[in-house]
Amino acid sequence: MAELRDDAVEPRPGETLDADAVGAYLREAVPGLDGDISIAQFPGGASNLTYLVRVGDEELVLRRPPFGTKARSAHDMGREFRVLSGLHSVFRYCPRPLAYCEDPDILGEPFYVMERLQGIILRRDPPDDIKLDADTAHGLCENLLDVHLELHRIDPAAAGLAELGRPDGYTERQVGGWSKRYRNARTDDVPDNEPLMAWLAEHIPPEAGRAAIIHNDYKFDNVVWQDDGTGLRIRGVLDWEMTTVGDPLMDLGCSLAYWIQADDPPSMLALRMMPTHLPGMMRRRDVIDYYLAGADLKIGDFRFYYIFGLFRLAVIVQQIYYRYMLGQTRDSRFAHFGQMGAVLSGVAGAIAAGQRDI
Question: What distance separates the 2 farthest-apart alpha carbons in the chain?
Fold first, then answer.
């Protein structure tokens, strides 16, 4: 099999970094670095920006907030670095953090650097040299969910992250917080979503006492895959910016929001970002059943968690669209994010109204 990599490319216009400043900092902060520096950008992701930094023969990954952002709390590099530092010793899939910088004279924003995990990111469609037959695709789903369950079994205190979040009242705060974010980022060309937000507020499940470290953006294109000799297996989990301590079923619901099936309507299929439509891939109901069996949980109605996941994703893309409309980012990918959010919230509303199933 060919070498599996998620290739970095020339940074997008307006998102270049000062290589001299980064190089000078890293040679001081990370022992053993020597040689010329070059910086490329990983193309995926729509929130924090991720770069491949080469210093001589060494490869590192640098993460920084998007340019022009005003929502500092949503792009807290120090918090993300603390999460990695705590998890690395107890969760084998967590990349090793190397350095954190909050000096604005370097890049104008705080940033951190971590080890680069070699492998492939499975995005919308597998690379040409990756052939996913039905059995392989099903195995990938099982591995993805097994690692998710492994994360949720970690004692937050063992990772030094017990104070990362407040599990009591977590779901209610999430519904209220994401509703407020949507109202603040709404533009005139998208739905107001007031009925959907009211449904969520009225259907918050009773407190169940579940508390776990939750990733909050766990999906195929946030894990690194490697061939271990028996097939593709997860090597690492990326993008820990929204990690907290809360209800793991909320985490699963947020993951399901990205899970597009082959028989979904065309409007949903147009949003597909991962190869979950391929033969052998689990359906959303299969994902729920597999996870609940592994967690030894019984949930009569999972609709709330999936609807919340869809709505939260609609808010995320609307916030990005809002920044695009304000001219805070020039990334052309974001021009249609308002329409994407409208589709997501429309599906969520239809499920809430009983017009379609999960």
Answer: 61
Give the 3-state secondary structure of residue 264: coil
**What's the pLDDT at 230?**
84
Say what the pLDDT of residue 71 is.
47
Residues 6+ apart with CB under 8 A from 193: 182, 186, 311, 314, 345, 349
User: What does the pLDDT read at residue 55?
Assistant: 92
Rounded to a whole number of angstroms, the CA Rg of the chain reads 20
pTM of the model: 0.90
Q: Give the 3-state secondary structure of residue 190.
A: coil
Domain span at residue 256? 134-352
Q: Six-digit token pair at 106?
A: 């370097």
**Could you say which of 60, 82, 115 is where a domain stops?**
115
DSSP-assigned letters across all residues of 297-327 = ---S--HHHHHHHHHHHHHHHHHHHHHHHTT
Are 166 and 313 in the same domain?
yes
Task: Find the CATH number of the domain harbouring 107.
Answer: 3.30.200.20
User: Who contacts 70 (Cβ-Cβ below 8 Å, separation ≥6)?
Assistant: 328
Give the pLDDT confidence of 37-57 residue by residue, as tens digits: 999 998 765 578 999 999 998
Instruction: Please name which of 315, 345, 344 lies closest in space to residue 74, comparing C-alpha atoms.
Output: 315
How confident is the prediction for the chain on average, in pLDDT? 91
Average pLDDT over residues 270-289: 96
